[in-house]
Design a protein that fits this description.
alpha/beta; 5 helices; 7 strands; globular; single chain
């Protein structure tokens, strides 16, 4: 398996192919529906964002409560299509990669190709196992959202599959 690190370089993103298995290390932000809604509202209102979207990787995840002595609780992917309404604008503002599960809309596929981004999937139903790849986690925005707050994760060898590549390749067809 190929190892990659954040921030993701444009040449690396363009070289990835649908179906390729990877191990990601570096910084990833969690964000789900409500966090995406707030981010997009801030973009549309021309307000500052609590995280830098340029070259960011967002993981569609709402972790469970953190057990004592661990950096994070179970942190499996959530269904990505719920973020599709927000994704094209976020890609236009510099987002480079997303991690989740399931297929994406034709609008998101087109935006990924246009903005040279990438969509990764990871193993659903394996949240406890995925948590072992998180070295540090802290809330960085929207703490009032509880498990849907934006967290900054430091990950090591986080397992991914390229689902939609920057050239339009798509494992879902």
């Amino acid at each position: 398996m190929k190892r990659i690190s954040t921030p993701l370089d444009l040449n690396l993103i363009k070289s990835l192919r649908a179906g390729q298995e990877l191990l990601l290390s570096g910084i990833v932000y969690t964000a789900r529906d409500q966090a995406h809604k707030r981010l997009v509202e801030a973009i549309k209102a021309d307000k500052g964002l609590p995280i830098e979207l340029k070259s960011a990787v967002i993981y569609y995840c709402g972790p469970t409560q953190t057990p004592k002595g661990r950096p994070i609780g179970s942190c499996g992917p959530t269904t990505s299509s719920r973020m599709d309404v927000f994704t094209p604008l976020m890609l236009a503002k510099g987002l480079k990669a997303m991690i989740g599960k399931g297929g994406r809309s034709k609008e998101v596929k087109a935006a990924i190709k246009k903005h040279k981004g990438v969509y990764f999937v990871t193993y659903a139903g394996c949240g406890a196992l995925l948590a072992r790849h998180v070295q540090r986690a802290r809330v960085v925005a929207y703490s009032d959202l509880g498990p849907e707050a934006i967290l900054r994760l430091e990950v090591k060898d986080f397992p991914l599959i390229v689902a939609i590549d920057a050239n339009g390749g798509d494992i879902y067809g």
